[in-house]
Amino acid sequence: MWEYTDKVKDHFFNPHNVGEIENPDGVGEVGSLACGDALKLTFKLDKDGRIADAKFKTFGCASAIATSSVLTEIIKGMTLEEAAKVTNKDIADYLGGLPEQKMHCSVMGKEALEAAIENYHTGGKKKHELKGKVVCTCFGVTEDEIERVIRENDLTTVEQVTNYCKAGGGCGGCRGEIEKIIKNIQGDKAGQVTETQPRWAGKLTNIQKIQMIQQTINEQIRPALREHGGDIELIDVEGDKVIVAFRGMCAQCKLTEFTMKDVVETKLREFVSDKLFVEEDKDSTQQPHNHRG
Q1: Is 51 exposed, middle or buried (0-12, 13-18, 19+ CB in 10 A)?
Q2: Domains observed in the chain
Q3: Cut 0.70: pTM above it
Q4: 105 flagged as catalytic
């Protein structure tokens, strides 16, 4: 579905430096399973203060794995001062580019690096915290982060901001505020908000749609839920309405509504179609259905 460069494919299928360094000098953790992407970066310095080794552990898509892999390669041999100057654009450029909808993965890598450097300078005593007012409550994105991705990547539309840091990609309640931030920074360059283009260029048949929804659930959603003892089942697809049932711990969780909208629906809109919406079948029995597709 996405057009990936050969370098992205290589770092996805053969990721470098996977794992976690024992007794690291710096640790950076960003993202969350609830948001669909999470990254932990660790590094070790040599006697000259240069990064001798760097490793990563991530949960996310092919772009998240590839950007994390290449980040560890970029920063090896650098001083912390040099590493701090690495931008998300440097990461994407090293890979020969990324689909714009996946640029948030490069931003996540940059944030993990910053968190790890901050962790080193504080002797591991201070946990990395978001700075500034939270604008997007769905994904926990602050005004400072939105301003930075706009400036560093010359963004002019809300859709671009969503692609780079996910802000505005959930309920959409913060889109107006994001537009104001863009206008304050870009002035007349700020573009008009346009509807997000469908993720799939052609018209999907019902069978294709169901197959893609099931694949997205299996690969992008179910692993995160199972980490917490939960699961999800696709019950039916009626037009653009996707009916699901939560299983295990998710069935009793008070945050089911949040999970349904900010995890399940967001992932399906990202990987299948931005017209999809999700409803929970609360009357479904605990016995799994033999669903088509």
Answers
A1: buried
A2: 6-121 (3.90.1010.10), 134-189 (1.10.10.1100), 206-280 (3.30.300.130)
A3: no
A4: yes
